[in-house]
């Protein structure tokens, strides 16, 4: 699996386009920028996929961000899913579903964008 991620990253980096990775029967398209941010910020592709699958949604007019916080960690831990390494990871997706960037932020309400917060699925 790790080799597939390495190949996808190399292809995205070389082409400066997007890379497709398989996730439970669906595909997430990562921009070259998102792949580069994964590498430089020490976030694994597996963590990004967990955030895409289990994270709460923050809506804004031009993007959808998925994020995992302590509430999601506690909720899914009781269901056998360990999200502790994903705490604070944000995955920003364009409206077409393409992953644009990935980052880790410790404080959910640190910026004015928090007004777009909607209820978590948990």
In a nutshell, what does this entry contain?
By secondary structure, the chain is α+β, with helices and mostly antiparallel strands. The chain has helices spanning 2-15, 32-40, 45-54, 70-77, and strands spanning 18-23, 26-31, 56-60, 63-67, 89-93, 99-104.
Give an account of the 3D structure.
The protein is of the alpha+beta class. The protein has one domain. Helix content is 34%, strand content 27%. The protein is built from four helices and six strands, in the order H-E-E-H-H-E-E-H-E-E. Strands 3-4-5-6 form a four-stranded antiparallel β-sheet. A two-stranded antiparallel sheet has the order 1-2. The chain is globular. The protein starts with a helix and ends in an 18-residue tail after the last strand. 26% of the residues are buried. This is DUF4258 domain-containing protein.
């Amino acid at each position: 699996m790790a080799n597939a991620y390495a190949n996808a990253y190399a292809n995205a980096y070389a082409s400066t386009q997007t890379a497709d990775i398989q996730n439970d029967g669906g595909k997430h398209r990562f921009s070259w920028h998102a792949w580069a941010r994964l590498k430089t910020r020490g976030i694994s592709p597996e963590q990004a996929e967990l955030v895409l699958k289990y994270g709460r949604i923050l809506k804004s007019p031009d993007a959808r961000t998925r994020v995992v916080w302590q509430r999601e960690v506690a909720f899914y831990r009781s269901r056998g899913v360990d999200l502790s390494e994903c705490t604070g990871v944000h995955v920003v997706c364009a409206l077409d579903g393409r992953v644009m960037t990935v980052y880790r932020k410790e404080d959910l309400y640190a910026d004015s964008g928090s007004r777009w917060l909607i209820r978590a699925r948990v």
